[in-house]
Amino acid sequence: MMLNVDTLLIGDCEHLASDIASKMHSFISPRSTIAVERAVLRLAGISGAREQYPLVNIVADSIGKEIFRHGVAFSLVNAIAATGKNAQTLAEQVADERLDLDSFPIAPEEKRRVIADELRKAGLERIERQRQRRQNALQQFGERPTPWRYVIVASGNIFEDIDQALAAVGQGADIIAVIRSTAQSLMDYVPEGATTEGFGGTYATQENFRIMRDALDELSKRLGRYVRLTNYASGLCMPEMAMLGALERLDMMLSDSMYGILFRDINMQRTLVDQHFARRIQALAGIIINTGEDNYLTTDDAFNAAHTVLASQFINRAFAHRSGLPDRQIGLGHAFEMNPLQESGLLLEIADALLSRTCFPNCPLKYMPPTRHVTGDIFQAHVMNALFNLTSVATMQHIHLVGMPTEGVHTPFMQDRAIALKSVEYITHYAKGISDEFLIREDGIINQRGRTVLQAARDLLSDINETGMFESIEQGQFANIKRNRNGGKGLEGVFVKSDRYLSLLPDDYGK
Amino acid sequence: MENDPVIRPFGDTRNDGAIQLSFTLPIAHSERARAAARALCTSMNLTQTNVVHMERLDDRSTFFIVYGRTSASVDLDQLVTAEPEIQEMSIEHVNKTILTKLSRKAVVIGAATGTDAHTVGLDAILNLKGFHGNHGLERYASLDVHNLGSQVSNRALVSRVRELNADVLLVSQVVTHNELHLRNLTQLIDLLEAESLRGNLIAVVGGPRISHELAIELGFDAGFGAGTLPSQVAAFIAGSIQRR
């Protein structure tokens, strides 16, 4: 099935989005944030906590404001030069003896460079090793046929989550995503250790990542197929989340350039700087990023808002490119849920899903099921999900977030996932080949819808490009949500790098 | 038969007591599992149990769909229900009632509190556009509506109630995991009491897991669940103000 839309318009959208991202980058490149610097400390090998307080937070907080502008690596490297100790030992000393990391003499530049190079090499090697392990597993077991079945676990207890995850994989799931505890995105530290309690989800911690990854690796070996693990980076600790994902071999992460701003009221300057660093790490780690365009539909219906989803996808992708991510690692997200009472809603959804597919042929698109119009009627929800499954197969979506019949009721039971996965399996097989069998009517509902939405997305992108990203957000161009550039949470964590700023990342990408 | 206050479920024949249920047991898929499912249903006082579907979920878990008959019943004459007292009113009638009584607009504050980020319900009640063609409270000329959005702390909310001299407080709670909503709502009422603001305030809570009984128990004046229309909330507000 192919849409007949103006490919020049698609190119136009790409250029406009690229312009938007370039202009934003002149703001982003000279800046860093407290979360970026904590992620750098993690890259340098620091982990652990003292009485729940992460060492990376303690160390970062021990550095004076002016010196902080040189980046934490600057202070760390001087401390290593002065003491000969490694980063972790120094971090523990800072915590236990209440030292300031910036209290050591500044080493000569050459010595600083050597130590920084060593830290960089060691850190990037850890990430590369995980990337290689994934490559090997995929080579050994082969890649899964699309659509990949993505299911969610979220009991609050990582050990319960493992049982649920193993069952789901046995029932056909390809990807396990662990929903984070409510509002974790608003915390300015990453909790430490395995957790057994959470609200509406399970805390994302390095240890929880490791435990789940281990369990899924074992299962992968047993079943002879690689099982992917997903978690969510967005929030005040986005760079740290990305780093932990890279170190523990998550395969996919929710990593949206604008979600935190719009839906969590995190300061836009903070988010835009954080997302660039996070995505650079995800690029190096071979992680596929997902974006959260489904959230646009919590404030408006796809009938009216599909073009905002598409425009956002262009923007997210443009930013991702500037952070070094290739298309095959950009799993743009979308949902096109219509009011079930909408006449010919299925045709419109097919058009919208196909349009994204057409605009981003090399991206592993993530298609998300109905949620807003799902109630406690679990039988009807199951039916709606069946049509969603059919749409997904027909429009060749890549990552398929499996809809649960109990979406409107509770976080999934083991039986809910089984029922849902059965539906996906049945429809994927029963409707196999459907995407190649039909030619779309030239001037029918589907093509017309595709053209309308593409044009509207292009016009919106043009407006945003002319107005500027910050101003556009302030005016409520995204999801009708207005945010002030100096408002929201986390602005105080943003700073302009000094000209002595020391980075532990390879200095090439987007800067 | 038609006026019998005692009612039972039915499938195709009145009073046949037919129900359908599904559940998972931590036992491997086997005939023994089927027997376990039937025994469970028997212990729930179901008869004529028929395990119509049984499926392996993993090595140690099995899912069942069961039909059975229950002898349980409900006596409607003995049934005590709680619903907010609402007399349906048109927009004009609501406006007239409030403006006549207060000689000014009623100040309404709405917020999703605690860490709750879900504002779909709140916006559906407050926004001009409303929900399913039923206009939101912003449409009412007698209401001065302040939508504080999501993730509002109880302290911040109480401050706003004081600053704006609010007449009505609408709290939205969606997240109920681990009873988080109970603690949060109780704390809000406590804070309002402590600041002597509770007495003059009409306090309402809404959300998909909220019932009127629960709301009253927690110290609110009313609770509204899923499917509540803005006009119902407006009518409740008007009625409450009139009765003050």
How does this structure look, described?
- The complex is a heterodimer of chains A (511) and B (244).
- With 511 residues, chain A is of the alpha/beta class.
- Chain A has two domains: 44-121, no CATH class; 146-448, TIM Barrel, CATH 3.20.20.
- In chain A, 53% of the residues lie in helices and 8% in strands.
- Chain A is built from 20 helices and 13 strands.
- Chain A has helices spanning 7-28, 34-43, 55-61, 65-68, 72-83, 87-96, 109-141, 158-170, 206-223, 238-247, 259-264, 268-285, 296-299, 302-322, 345-359, 378-394, 414-430, 434-437, 445-467, 469-474; strands at residues 31-33, 49-50, 53-54, 148-153, 175-178, 228-232, 252-254, 288-290, 330-331, 333-334, 366-367, 399-401, 494-496.
- In chain A, the strands form three sheets. Chain A has a nine-stranded parallel β-sheet with strand order 9-8-7-6-5-4-12-11-10. Chain A has a two-stranded antiparallel sheet with strand order 1-13.
- In chain A, helix 16 runs parallel beside helix 17 (414-430).
- Chain A is globular and about 75 Å long.
- The mean pLDDT of chain A is 94.
- By secondary structure, chain B is of the alpha/beta class.
- Chain B folds into two domains: 6-75, D-lysine 5,6-aminomutase beta subunit KamE, N-terminal domain (Defensin A-like); 91-242, Rossmann fold (3-Layer(aba) Sandwich).
- Chain B has seven helices and ten strands.
- Chain B has helices at 31-43, 91-102, 120-126, 154-164, 180-194, 212-218, 230-243, and strands at residues 6-7, 18-25, 46-58, 61-70, 74-75, 106-112, 143-147, 168-172, 202-206, 222-224.
- In chain B, the strands form three sheets. Chain B has a five-stranded parallel β-sheet, with helices on both faces. Chain B has a three-stranded antiparallel β-sheet with strand order 2-4-3, covered by helices on one side.
- The longest helix of chain B has 15 residues, at 180-194.
- Chain B is elongated.
- The chains are: A alpha/beta (511), B alpha/beta (244).
- Chains A and B meet through helix 8 and helix 17 of A and strand 2 and strand 3 of B.
